[in-house]
Specification:
This protein is globular. It starts with 8 loop residues before the first strand and ends with a helix. α5 (121-130) packs parallel to α6. The protein has helices at residues 20-24, 36-52, 68-79, 93-104, 121-130, 151-161, 212-218, 226-236, 245-261, 263-283, 311-320, 347-363; strands at residues 9-10, 59-65, 86-89, 109-112, 135-139, 141-142, 147-148, 164-168, 187-191, 202-208, 299-303, 324-325, 327-328, 336-340. Helix content is 41%, strand content 16%. A seven-stranded mixed β-sheet has the order 2-10-9-8-5-3-4, with helices on both faces. The chain has 364 residues and is of the alpha/beta class. It binds pyridoxal-5'-phosphate. Pyridoxal-5'-phosphate (PLP) is lined by residues 13-14, 67-69, 72, 94, 139, 143, 168, 170-171, 191.
Length: 364
């Protein structure tokens, strides 16, 4: 651990626990981001982001100083033109957020599915057959419920119907193997502070290079214009507007760490950590919002029942005082709380969490 800092176990779904190397990378010489040296860093970040999804040669990327929602807004307002129509899978809070973005920009859209429902491929197929859509937008890992939506199957459906697939892979990209080419993804959104394990501040978009002309033609925004940002990066080696300089250095370190661990390796680590939490909570008598087969194994939404008679906040505060952060739920009509394993965490951290939760329950 770095001098003067304490190790914190963040079980909120990002920003997560970062490695020492990522923290240290924040402290750099002052530099103007218009210098070539910084431009090289931008290029290395972009290349690394594409490499994480094996997209080299076919995929392009750009980024914006923003939280993750910025990347989702960038895609929807850059790709959905006046004659386009997007079908959004709204089976959780983040799918619903996509619909909110479309509504606020007056984009043509329709929605399918309710909060917590597992996508019904037959129903989506029917909807795509009956109406003319140009795009389908979905969340890969729905962070509000912990549901892993069936990306491969949805991608195949999109290919069959010749619609472009937009994926919010915010809480999976870098932590779950996504093959951009195989899955025929047209647009993917994610951010610096989730499974890539960097600091918050940069949102990025990866897109198929065949989409460049659509992006140029369809865009309806200013700041989040993907095409213009991409051109700027290509031609001037810079973002259009001020980048978060230090966050970018930390992000590059986090990307290198992701590539070194490998996405497959990180996925194994996340699943192993998740399993410890799942087994623990099950043993302690908690129940879960989702059936096991729908679980992402990156996040667990746990029902808040009589197991925590003093309520979530009391439980949270006890853990927080012992360096562990748990997160409230967001599922309407259902009282839940969440624990995610996104971040630089190991089995021994999960065991410590287990020890503290047992202590808490026996203190009641
Ligand atoms: C975290 C997250 C976002 C973005 O949230 P921000 O608060 O804007 O960073 C979007 N979609 C999903 C699925 C997420 O998990």
């Amino acid at each position: 651990m770095m001098d003067g800092l304490e190790r914190k176990i963040l079980l909120n779904p990002g920003p997560g626990t970062t490695s020492d190397a990522v923290k240290k990378a924040l402290v750099v010489n002052d530099i103007c981001p218009r210098e070539d040296e910084f431009g090289d860093l931008m290029q290395k970040i972009i290349q690394g982001l594409v490499e994480i999804g094996n997209g080299e040669g076919e995929f392009e990327a750009c980024m914006f100083p923003a939280s993750g929602t910025g990347a989702v807004e960038a895609i929807l307002t850059s790709a959905i033109g006046k004659t386009s129509k997007v079908l959004i899978v709204t089976n959780g809070a983040y799918g619903i957020r996509m619909a909110d973005i479309c509504r606020s920009f007056d984009l043509n859209f329709d929605t399918i599915h309710e909060y917590g429902e597992y996508p019904d491929l037959g129903l989506i197929h029917k909807k795509l057959s009956e109406e003319s859509f140009t795009h389908l937008a979905m969340i890969h890992h729905e962070t509000s419920t912990g549901m892993m939506n069936p990306l491969e199957e949805m991608a195949a459906l999109c290919e069959k119907h010749e619609v472009d697939l937009i994926v919010d892979a915010m809480s999976s990209y870098g932590g779950y193997p996504i093959d951009l080419k195989e899955m025929k993804i047209s647009y993917l959104a994610a951010s610096s502070n989730k499974c890539i394990q960097g600091m918050p501040g940069l949102a990025f978009v990866i897109f198929h290079k065949d989409k460049l002309s659509e992006l140029k033609e369809h865009t309806r925004n200013f700041y989040f214009d993907i095409y213009t940002q991409w051109v700027h990066l290509k031609e001037k080696n810079q973002l259009r507007f001020t980048p978060p300089v230090q966050i970018s250095y930390a992000f590059y370190t986090a990307i290198q760490e992701t590539l070194k661990e490998t996405v497959q390796g990180r996925w194994q680590r996340y699943q192993a950590n998740w399993q410890v939490l799942y087994d623990l909570m099950q043993e302690l008598g908690f129940s879960f919002f989702l059936p096991i087969e729908q679980q992402s194994k990156i996040l667990l939404a746990i029902n808040l029942d009589e197991k925590l008679p003093k309520g979530f906040d009391h439980f949270h505060d006890y853990l927080y005082q012992r360096d562990i952060t748990v997160y409230p739920g967001v599922i309407p009509e259902n009282k839940t709380f969440r624990m995610a394993v996104i971040g630089d965490l190991e089995i021994k951290d999960m065991e410590y969490v287990g020890k503290v939760i047992r202590e808490y329950l026996s203190s009641l």
